[in-house]
Queue: 2 jobs
Job 1
Amino acid sequence: MMRQALFLPLVILFFQCSHTHVETVTLKGSDTEINLVLQLAEAYMESEPGVSISITGGGSGVGIAAMLNNKTDIANSSRELSIYESALARERNIQIEPFIFAADALAIIIHPSLTIDSLTLDDLGKIYAGEIQNWSQTGGGTGRISLYGRQSNSGTYMYFRERVVKRDYSPDLKQMNGTSQILEAVKADPGAIGYVGLGYLTDSEGNVREGIRVVRLSRTPDEPAVSPLDRALVKNGLYPLTRPLYQFTNGVPEGKIKDFLEFESSPAGKKIILENGYLSAREAGMAGNIEK
Amino acid sequence: MNRFFWDIFFKKTLTIAALVSVLTLVGIFLLLLINGLQTFKTIEISAFLTGSDWNPAAYETPVFGIAAMLISTLMVTFGSMFIAVPLGIGTAAFLSEMASPRVRNLLKPVIEMLAAVPSVVIGFLGIVLVAPALAALFELPNGLNALNGSILLAVMALPTLISVSEDAIHAVPNHYKEASYALGANRWETLIRVTLPACKSGVLAAVMLGLGRALGETMTVLMATGNATAMPHHFFDPVRTITATVAIEMGEVPFGTAHFYSLFTCALVLFLITLVVNIVAERLAARFRKKGQ
């Protein structure tokens, strides 16, 4: 749904820039990143009329696959490369360079009628693996737990499985096409739990969206539980699901690709990142500059 | 001489043109077959067909079982036929037997226009309109389930179903009906006992064509059925069809892996089912055409 909604502005952007000699940079991948990257690209194109940036989603896996097949200049990804993908890159002689342009905290949201306030990562994993199936087992509400997540082409799906579930997802997981769809489903379903990126939690004024409740998380039962909305604690790395948002390039970026990545790290780019509810790479303590 | 040359030339060109689509079909079949059969080097054919767990990118051991997806596909398809068949045949009978020529000439193109609505649009309506309505009506936590998919596919199958069965009903010779009226039957009795039985094969062909349409539909079900891989137990469970699985996973699958080949096998299974449905439809349509003459 979201992808279709984004298509129109992309087309318009494309046509606006096509009347003079233009250099095109293609970006493909993460649906978590797409809204943010789209806004960064719009701002960048305003200052650089000679460059046209085309962005498509499809999920981190799709972006990385496109990079391995030489079909994109930049692969947006909310996860690292898998072992298989790195092996394939070596085999095809593609030097994948990671660049962290922003940081996200993956938020766990539930329907507001549920009373649970915090969860440990361990319990969250059990919920998503289907070992805890009823809210009464968590001491926060009643009724069957209704699981919402993304599809296997999503970086968030993989990240969450590696970090939290640590085994296979329950087959009852409803696999949504995009984060917006998770958000809408959680609002409507009284037993719902879902995961969304930080940028989807707040509206344009910075207030938490209505109709959802954000769960605080802790690594162990002894640690205090932290909300992803508490920016100071997230910045200090106390929220357990803080993750880097990557942009991969084939080899050290050059020319307009490098120029765009530098724009993202500039004060103007940082402003857009913060306005969208994400953290800049530097404040989350992640290397913002091109590595090496 | 010149005329002779052009005659031959056009004959050959048109033959080639006709062969292109046949060769395409054969090519697709071979592609699916060659890639699809690779799966069975690593996976037992019985495990593939009867296993109910599908998780090729699993955390630990990948499993390839299409039973749950196959049942999902069949549920959504037959569910849609359950809705579309009575509605479609009823509409066709109305258009052919009851409606005045003016109404018929107005309604039929409008119904056929329904076929022009893109499947993403139908899927979108499923998410924002039908699913919330179903959730409210049946007090479900979520309306993204097999029933939602069935309703949407029924809408998509209706134009074909109505159009083809209307043609079939319309082709029943008038003297059949006149004989029935002469024996004292009313219009309803004539329709049910005489007209519909007379064009049975044509209507069945229409149903099969609608079925084929529903079976292969991807975007709508991908958007509107919840996509849980668990075995569905009833129509209020979320389902993930074979088409949706291929569409979701093809974009990220590494080439040449077991996962890659298994998606071809999924497509092969779907292709074989649609092929059988279409052959049956063609047979029925051919029989109906013969009768019509």
Job 2
Amino acid sequence: MPVIEIAGKQINVNEEGFLTKYDEWDEEIAKVLAKQIEVEMTDAHWNIIKFLREDFKKEGETATSRRVQTVGGVPVKEQFVLFPKKPAKKMAYIAGLPKPKGCV
Amino acid sequence: MLPFGVYKAEELVKKRDHFFPKNVEFIRAEIDKIVPESNHVFLTDGRVLEYDQLVIATGTSPRPDQTPGMDDPATWRKSVFDFFTLDGSVALRDALATRQGGRLVIHITEMPIKCPVAPLEFAFLADAFFEDRKIRDKVEIVYVTPLEGAFTKPVSSKHLGSMLEERKIRLEPDFVIEHIDPETKTLVSMDEREVPFDLLVTIPLNMGEDFIARSGMGNELNYVPVDKETFLSIKYPNVFALGDASDIPASKAGSVAHFAIELFTENFVDYIEGRSMKHRFDGHANCFIESGHGKGLLIDFNYTTEPLTGKFPIPFIGPLPLLKESRLNHMGKLAFRWIYWNMLIKGRRIPISTLMSMAGKRQTTSK
Ligand SMILES: Cc1cc2nc3c(=O)[nH]c(=O)nc-3n(C[C@H](O)[C@H](O)[C@H](O)COP(=O)(O)OP(=O)(O)OC[C@H]3O[C@@H](n4cnc5c(N)ncnc54)[C@H](O)[C@@H]3O)c2cc1C
């Protein structure tokens, strides 16, 4: 598995660039990751990212789009507006989590 | 294969009673609710069952009511079909038999679905079906999926994706449906893409039973959260969930349920006697995929290993090539019907190992 430098830190990622260690993530890294996939972070974006981080800590799995809707309270349609085209994948990427089950 | 007139409905349905061992009481009734706090199962006919240990195995079902416009009476089973139910399959068979051309759209609403290869298999069989009827050039086939590619796992996704291409089946990936417009016969996605159809074959959202939600025992799709290696409920120490009803990150497939149950039976005895459970499930799945014109392929994978190429041993039939089309794999699927009713369902062992074996397989990487 590759180790790359993001925001001046050595970070473990998989072949697709998803972080592999939960604790290596921080908001600085998230900003860099978001920029790489051309997502402009607003409060609405951060809300989802924080929900994903918390939910993963409890459940041990990345929340699916459906879960972000039913438990996190953000409709799937809005997720598509915030993270265009591939919201589930993009949200997980920025949150430093594995791709959710549905798309593995 | 029913929608294409290969099997008849009667051949696929059997009475359950005589499959149960004599010392098992089989109660045919609907579950209304479980109260896990007091160990009770309430049936809709008013009876109440008390349990020491509970194993939930109520599966998953297609829910066309969960997507706006999908089960609209103007189009449901007239131009919009499901084939995961017997009624749906029979209605679809009749619609396909008279089709002369137009746009056939095969669609998956959301993962997970039971038998995740079934829609691909349907696409391959539809291609062959129209070719045999000499009207393939009049039918456009489109495959619409919420996934990034043809299938969930990269190696097989690539392989199966090129099989779609060879058959001139257009892939529409990353399509998360918002609604179906029954008037214009169009699928509309969350990001406002539109796919029109003349005939839609959809896999509706699959969900666990509603009573699981009523009992407060499910996740957002009514699946029971369990430990993925032992099937023990995360929340209740005397509840297990097996098969499609659980939330394990494996395919919702009969093969997975079969492999899982083989190790579960021993684990369960150990568990109720207070010993630790010895076996750990690895997510082993094994699926035949019919690819049309009397050929088929076979894939084999688990939680961590991607579908592999190589050979897979099946009793009486011999080694079957993995992830590769062959006539032998098609014969394997046909023979499987006999193995299923005569051996598997009665709990007789077949010499296929429960945990995935790497013998005879070649590991390829996804790149
Ligand atoms: C068209 C199709 C093709 C498939 N092909 C394959 C294949 O080729 N290979 C493969 O491996 N898998 C295949 N599958 C998937 C396979 O059928 C399922 O994964 C398997 O049946 C799951 O078994 P299960 O016991 O968990 O659930 P099920 O077989 O669904 O059984 C659930 C049972 O629970 C009962 N139940 C539900 N709710 C209640 C209630 N409230 N009260 C009382 N009883 C209730 C139901 O009546 C049912 O008998 C296919 C599925 C479909 C639909």
